[in-house]
Amino acid sequence: xxxxxxxxxxxxxxxxxxxxxxxxxxxxxxxxxxxxxxxxxxxxxxxxxxxxxxxxxxxxxxxxxxxxxxxxxxxxxxxxxxxxxxxxxxxxxxxxxxxxxxxxxxxxxxxxxxxxxxxxxxxxxxxxxxxxxxxxxxxxxxxxxxxxxxxxxxxxxxxxxxxxxxxxxxxxxxxxxxxxxxxxxxxxxxxxxxxxxxxxxxxxxxxxxxxxxxxxxxxxxxxxxxxxxxxxxxxxxxxxxxxxxxxxxxxxxxxxxxxxxxxxxxxxxxxxxxxxxxxxxxxxxxxxxxxxxxxxxxxxxxxxxxxxxxxxxxxxxxxxxxxxxxxxxxxxxxxxxxxxxxxxxxxxxxxxxxxxxxxxxxxxxxxxxxxxxxxxxxxxxx
Length: 382
Prior knowledge:
Elements lengths: L8 E3 L2 E4 L1 E2 L2 H8 L9 E2 L11 E7 L2 E2 L5 H12 L25 E9 L5 E3 L8 E2 L10 H9 L6 E10 L1 H5 L14 H5 L5 E10 L6 E6 L3 E4 L3 H9 L12 E4 H23 L3 E6 H6 L14 E10 L4 E11 L1 H9 L6 H28 L7
Parallel strand pairs: 12-15, 15-16
Antiparallel strand pairs: 1-2, 3-4, 5-6, 5-7, 7-8, 7-9, 10-11, 11-12, 13-14, 16-17
Helix pairs in contact: 2-6, 7-9
């Protein structure tokens, strides 16, 4: 008989729920003596400040830590009603605000820890820094001016947004009324595109109006993996106690999906063409994103670079956060790829050793599977 206290349980923000029973009763149960034990479970909260967890940093442009409970409740109600909210960072069109396109309205995330009173507070140090989660968060700051000053020689560039860079060959070759084979057309954008339409865009083009020099700009936010945000939005609206509610579930910034899987293919497609044209690509990322990259050999002169990594930071200003320019790092495309993959190729002998190890492992697994199948009493079939 195994007592019910063996193992642990979890419930919401409570981790590692231990159980209480006497040592002798536990020993007797495992020895098959006595009636067994029924142990009571005692919930133990994480010690204050022990395990950071990511939650909302900015919500519809507002710093969550700077919002009073009534305003948090109001935002939560608007969100639950699926109200179209304005994006405070996109430029207005003829005086009209543009809508937020994020389903949850989260501009940035940050890590929180649990305080002694059970509420959440931002983690200290690098863990508590705001991480940009929406590309639009990079807009409406002095970052474009900083890029243009370094690459174009002017602090007053013309800004052209979302310029088509790739044209769908599949769509362009399609004849009128011709049906595309969906098994062949794996690219969803190409599948839905009109003949010759754009299927890949560059976020921004900055142009010096005096010299006609221009450069491309890409914004790369970080994706987050883990628990859904819906329960957090409800908890934020209902929380009236001190501080903020502790983020529910577990989530983390997914730099692997954001960098090698998303950004790297974009650079590998766009930068070679820009390089042939004699143009530069500026990639805007926040400081935490850049710190997550592998080491890259850099160059000191923009003329020797393909990519200008433009590193920014979100600075907590109480009710809102300011996006500030920090530095520019210049690299070639090849060195950028090494940094995004966060590794360099192993030597040939080491790689061949790994092949042999895999073959040995496959041989062992084959023998284990064979023994298992020999014991199976399978029906011979029809």
